[in-house]
Amino acid sequence: xxxxxxxxxxxVDSRVAAKMIPYLTERFGNPASRSHAFGWAAxxxxxxxxxxxxALVNADPKEIVWTSGATxxxxxxxxxxxxxNSARGKHLIxxxxxxxxxxxxxxxxxxxxxxxxxxxxxxxxLIDLDKLAAAIRTDTVLLSVMLVNNxxxxxxxxxxxxxxxxxxxxxxxxxxxxxxGKVEINLETTPIDLLSLSAHKIYGPKGIGALxxxxxxxxxxxxxxxxxxxxxxxxxxxxPTHQIVGMGEAYSIARAGMAAENERIRWLRDRLWAGxxxxxxxxxxxxxxxxxxxxxxxxxxxxxxxxxxxxxxxLAVSSGSACTSASLEPSYVLRALGRSDELAxxxxxxxxxxxxxxxxxxxxxxxxTEAVAKxxxxxxxxxx
Length: 384
Ligand code: PLP
Fold this sequence. Notes:
Bound molecules: pyridoxal-5'-phosphate
Oligomer: single chain
Keywords: 2Fe-2S, Cytoplasm, Iron, Iron-sulfur, Metal-binding, Pyridoxal phosphate, Transferase
Helix content: 25-40%
Family: Belongs to the class-V pyridoxal-phosphate-dependent aminotransferase family. NifS/IscS subfamily.
Subunit structure: Homodimer. Forms a heterotetramer with IscU, interacts with other sulfur acceptors.
CATH class of the largest domain: Alpha Beta
Protein name: Cysteine desulfurase IscS
Pfam families: Aminotran_5
């Protein structure tokens, strides 16, 4: 099988796994044990990883809070900031193409009495700054916008959005789960207050992530998980040392290799797109320029996405996103771009990664081209 679903998850890089294993066995101490060497060794490893994660986004290690992944980071950032600041205002803004872990968190806050504006995006998948500015009210406390979209790979202009938020006194949260290690993130120069990170999208283990919480000016949150007061009270619970070590190593590898890796992946992406777009009635979803090279989301008109997936069983790709593919609803992200139900239903997300080869791309082009041709022959709507 050919794996082209790196946006869903990635394998743990063998260099990462090698660093993790000692922390499962001989270096098993609790990083909170301050009275003996077992604890000190674990604590040292956790703090090194904190530096590695902070370095990828140019932050202070003190601004990094460990969580179980970007889902938890999004919950902590949005609920934590909204609840802490609720005396100042109870209005939040987000966009329709956010990940469910942002949208469902906002829905939960609506049940608590907050009001949320769900902003539309343009056909490119990008947001219009004027429309955003018009949505900001005097009681708006937080805006949440993802840096890279998980389904279509488009990159939002978070520098401009952040500057707008700063000028209006609105806190700015960014879900960077799909962005870390793929696009430059510089938190020293970009006005972002809270930023969610995950390890398993970038060759680290599942079940570990982080939330960046700005210290200057200081951003305060109400905790979701109470207990021993770990992570400066923001997230209690014994730290999973091996997971944290894995995330640190994965981020360190990403930082060192990002430029070269992006170039190689862009070359593969261009090859894949050249092959697929040689067919008629093939449409790219999302802006072609403001996108990461790792993602190609394509609609094949006159073909039903689920049937196409069945026809290319050797390929691990997704139609819609992994978390919503259990339902047969067309992707809400593609619908938000204004795509018709037909085009939204006929979409496939190809996501390329570190271990993708040229031969895999070439085989993919052949398999998809054959499957699309076969399905179109059977379609009563196809008359070319
Ligand atoms: N946000 C985005 C944009 C994602 O793509 C994902 C991945 O599914 C998440 C959040 C959730 O991340 P995690 O799996 O670390 O909870």
